[in-house]
Amino acid sequence: MSDLEGLTRKLILKGKGLEEVKNRLVEEIRVYKDKLSRESAESLADAVLDEVRDSGALPRSDFVRSVLEYSRSGVSMGIMGVGSRGEGDFFVHHKLAEIAGRPISSRALLHPLHHDDAGAIEVKGKVLVTAVDGMHSRLSDFPFLAGFHASRATLRDVYVKGARPVGMLVDLHLADDGDVGKLFDFEAGVSAVSMLTETPILTGSTLRIGGDMVIGDRMTGCVGAFGITESEAMLAARHKVKPGSAILMTEGAGGGTVCTAAIYSGRPDVVLETLNIQFVKACRALLDSGLVGELYAMTDVTNGGVRGDAHEISKVSKTALHFDEKEIRRLVNPKVLGLLEDKGIDYLGVSLDALMVFTPDDHVDEIVKQVRRTGVMIGRVGWVEDATPKVTLITSEGEKNLALKFRESAYTRIKKVVGEGAPCGIDDMKAKVEETAKRAIGKRDAIVKHINSLG
Q1: Are residue 394 and residue 264 in the same domain, yes or no?
Q2: What is the per-residue pLDDT across 164-208, written as a single tens digit (0 to 9) for each?
Q3: Which residue in 203, 285, 249 sits closest to 379, CA to CA?
Q4: Strand positions, DSSP E, 62-207
Q5: Considering only Cβ atoms within 10 Å of each terminal Cβ, which end of the chain, N or C, has fewer?
Q6: Rounded to whole angstroms, what are the CA distances from 248 to 24, 220, 321, 380?
Q7: Segment 17-42, tens digit of pLDDT
């Protein structure tokens, strides 16, 4: 995929002449649009150059300029690890939550500052739970899997808050040269989950990535879901985790992440292990039995695996979490575990798509009984302590600190090249990101003030 507008701006900033830039654009265009004549490609290149020039015109008003321009941090997504579900990603998401701010309405029960799986708001005595999950960025060429796993992920986020999903929505973006068949296969993946879980698709949107300015066939998108629970007391939020809780976990075979690891390791057979609704069965068992109201919290093991989710829960609940490595390992799908270990991928740092339950000890036996009735494996994997927030792992070699890495486990070759550690100068980068987030808040407030002043 090629961003013609971005490429043009970059080349001009590097001091390249207009003719050189135009020739490069023609070259890029004809890579993807090989049936296009040279003359037509040149016409497109001229239009790109004209639009880039015109969009760079400085407005007379400083206020208009502030609306059009964004504050630059000088730190890229990749360097900061955004999307890689580790320390860097969590840091940026905390800043996004601060910009979103605390809702004005007191009816909002879960919002971005809670750093939970989903949002929740009280509506006429009941609680509406909403969530959204993006497709895995490496599954663009495997759209059915992308749609299937994004759908399953968003439903998980609703279920783990103690709600029953009642509908889904789909948002798809495909680049200009993408075959429309990708849209259909993605939708089929979503529809498969819809049928398996009896959750209807209610609405959606489809656009091209970058419109005419982005060529290629890359696809991205997301699936959202919303559900209802009867009351705030039924809301299984992360911050409700209490010392003394038992930690249970169901079997996990992964989703989009494991599919990506399998496909790009030449092991496509493992993909079939991920096509299931075991998580949904387990959640329904807890809902149908009324046990959800007796739990403290639930979550799905996704963001950075056990490492990532455990650290976030420890932080928001102000507790220490202790895990038994042997018990976690026992619940990972054998074929998936074999793939991860064969490729040197730390299974504790990737999305397992397992259900994790935090519950008073006296409910453990009944929870295990109800979940196992559905044919889903579940076991006790840890406990919660009233102590300084931390996460430990009990292994055959003793207790270890389950440290949060800067990025999730490297599960593809290119991720191994990028690495899991923090880049040099990370503290300076964080400071720049922090300052840029503050400027975004300032911009928001100035524009809100301006609009309110209009009467």
Answers
A1: yes
A2: 999 999 999 999 999 999 999 999 999 999 999 999 999 999 999
A3: 249
A4: 108-110, 119-123, 126-134, 164-174, 201-207
A5: C
A6: 56, 34, 12, 4
A7: 999 999 999 999 999 999 999 999 99
Tens-place pLDDT, residues 95-135: 999 999 988 888 999 999 999 999 999 999 999 999 999 99
Shared domain check, 207 and 352: no
Residues 80 and 111 in one domain: no
What six digits make up the tokens of 32? 């993807």
Residue (of 296, 167, 163, 283) closest to 230 by Cα position: 163
Domains identified in the chain, total number = 4
Amino acid at 88: G
CA-closest candidate to residue 236, choices 363, 311, 329, 127: 127
State yes or no: pLDDT of 455 exceeds 90: no
CA geometry: angle at 248 spanning 244 and 253, to 5°?
Answer: 155
Residue 272 phi/psi, 5-degree rounding, is: -60, -30
Task: Specify the amino acid at residue 333.
Answer: N
Domain boundary among 202, 218, 235: 235
Which residues make Cβ contacts (< 8 Å) with residue 110, sequence separation at least 6?
116, 118, 119, 120, 121, 129, 161, 235, 237
Whether residue 94 is found in the same domain as residue 161: no
In the block, residue with structure tokens 């575990």? 337
Of the chain, the percentage scoring pLDDT greater than 70 comes to: 100
Q: Are residues 361 and 431 in the same domain?
A: no
